[in-house]
Amino acid sequence: MPELPEVETVVRTLETLILQRKIEDVLVHTPSIVYFNDGFKEQLINQTIQSFSRRGKYIIIHLSDCFLIIHLRMEGRFFINTSFERANKHVHVSFQLDDHRVLHYQDTRKFGRMLITDDVNESLSHIGIEFNDPAFTPKLLFDAMRKSKRSLKAFLLSQEVITGLGNIYVDEVCFRSRIHPETIVNRLKLKHIKIIHHEIKAVLNEAIALGGSSIRTYTNAMGIDGLFQLQLQVHMRAQQPCIVCKKPIIKIIVANRGTYVCTHCQKELK
Hints:
elongated, 20% strand, N-terminal domain of MutM-like DNA repair proteins, 7 helices, 2 domains, 26% helix, 4-stranded antiparallel beta sheet
């Protein structure tokens, strides 16, 4: 958390709030947040925020002469005020803007990271395709899966073939596809993969439309709550009745992650 829909919401929110603003100063309170911290501040001062985009779970801020890539990881978030002083111990980077406002990056776990780059494609070459890229087809998914011995959940979480899916949305995709998350992907037939492909696109589009999910401690950009958690069919519903068969949802561990599954509706294909 946050996953692709939450990051997309952050991007859209920041775009409405600070587009075309110039960065006048930068405070790095926690150097470990920034890759290659030397010169980070100097590179950003006097840069204008020209646009925003997203790749998987990464925020990309397009500046005058470079790009700032931000990965929020587990608890990263932004807020804006008019004070350049550190608001609390969880604020790690602050950006003074030319309209007297300050964009603060806050992260209780300090897992988030920032990187300045001249080449976004090279910096993010390790991640897979976007779910809404026309090149993301059932055939692409089938070709990748038949070479893999991973479970369905581990495969979707890996970010190597398709990027942006995390624990919440993988659980939802597996349930809607009626496939057990421990199913080894090279056992899936094309008919199964077509369903998985469809559900990936459907789940992510629905989640983006609702601003993502706000669960546990995570709230989206600027305190905006997503609403997709109200639509979750299986994730975080342990011991509650399945919406299809009414049998209880169970929680297991798959790919080292807490996983919610209906063992009646979701069969492991062998």
